[in-house]
Amino acid sequence: SSSKSSQNVVVLGATGSIGCSTLDVIRASKGAFTPFALTAHGRLDDLLKAAIKYQPKYIVASDDAAAQAFDWSQLPPETTLLTGTAGLQEVAAHSEADIIVSAIVGRAGLEGTFAAIAAGKRVALANKETLVVAGHLATKLAQESGAEILPVDSEHSAIFQALMAGSETDVRKVILTASGGPFRKFTQQQLLKVTADEALDHPTWKMGPKITVDSATMMNKALELIEAKWLFNLKVDQIDVVVHPQSIIHSIVEFVDGSMVAQMSPPDMRMPIQLAMTYPERTECPARKLDLTTAFSLEFEPPDYERFPALKLGKEVAERGGTCGAVLNAANEVAVQQFLEGKIRFVDIYRVCRHLLDEHPFESNPELTRLLELDAWAREESIKWITCCLRQAKDQACSNT
Ligand code: NAD
Ligand code: MG
């Protein structure tokens, strides 16, 4: 709708890292974009502040109980408060909404994203978990509804941009770059002892806690491999991973003639977020710019699947498909949370995921309701396994020494 003067933007997860960068892009757009609805789960004082600053038509406090307990007396009169998952679905499918920025973290992003896809919206997708859990359903639904799913994830935005250099049938490979995270040079022995604080200290990106831990285990790259498969309709063996510690080349497409097209920019999410909103146009962007007059170098190295076994799960799950993505994602979400709470070790995150993938009742073509059932099952099962096996083993190991 380029004839319209301003596009209405819904930001699902407006108080998070991607959400705040999105509001930055909107603010810098000189009216090209209008904040139409903003949502948050916790930290409702941040949501209220954003409501006062941007005066959107709606805000959604997706945690019902927290919404009831909060004092909304300062809410601007022109802003309507909605609550719960129903509120997320309502704003994501609203007839006046043009662009839905899907920036809730984890499986919790599913309902809003699906509502936006079903309503045929432009979806600027940061919530990769939607494609990991239910990529076959989300992409099919988008085809039926005419929704556009545009990548926000920097690697996928890079691939999206590089693909414009050739035709789809001439793509040989897609190469996802990975920073390698804070433990890129750690030995197996060192990895046994790393703490949550160390995992949260990412060398190149500033992001929410869940994806920051995913970067440290390299599970993030596993999830991104699955995401790439669905976004660009690729075969799994067409997708490679290379470690590139500077996070300047965001990914690469190799064509059949051997030509590689890469996209570079500083690690700043405002660029891919904005492109997902303005595409097919490009406009001035508040993101940092690369300065090629200063000397710097770019390095590449192969990933180490022994120290970062989570990476292997990406190919396996992308190949098996079906229920695997939902189970991997749920197990990982639980394990990351347990690690952040100091209840399991860093290396146990992979073990929980491996165990759940091996134990789960595989199905090749599940419906959404089944996937959500399995998500709940995998969360319970992960906690059980952590409590009865992992922690017990840890305590025994401790009392033995
Ligand atoms: P974050 O933790 O900073 O923010 C999460 C947002 O989701 C917050 O607004 C929070 O209120 C909301 N939220 C949390 N739990 C919720 C729930 N149960 N129901 C509804 N809303 C809930 O996360 P982030 O780093 O901004 O990441 C958001 C998504 O974007 C993730 O899927 C992540 O993988 C993806 N992503 C992030 C980056 C980045 O640079 N941060 C880069 C690429 C992709
Ligand atoms: Mg990424």
UniProtKB/TrEMBL annotation:
Ranges where the DXP reductoisomerase C-terminal domain occurs: 264-380
Domain 1-deoxy-D-xylulose 5-phosphate reductoisomerase C-terminal: 149-232
Stretches assigned to coiled coil: none
Pathway field: Isoprenoid biosynthesis; isopentenyl diphosphate biosynthesis via DXP pathway; isopentenyl diphosphate from 1-deoxy-D-xylulose 5-phosphate: step 1/6
Source superkingdom: Bacteria
GO molecular function, one term: manganese ion binding
Protein residues bound to NADPH: 15-18, 127, 129, 208
PROSITE patterns cross-referenced by the UniProt entry: PROKAR_LIPOPROTEIN
Biological process according to GO: isopentenyl diphosphate biosynthetic process, methylerythritol 4-phosphate pathway involved in terpenoid biosynthetic process
Chain's role: Catalyzes the NADPH-dependent rearrangement and reduction of 1-deoxy-D-xylulose-5-phosphate (DXP) to 2-C-methyl-D-erythritol 4-phosphate (MEP).
Record's protein name: 1-deoxy-D-xylulose 5-phosphate reductoisomerase
Gene: dxr
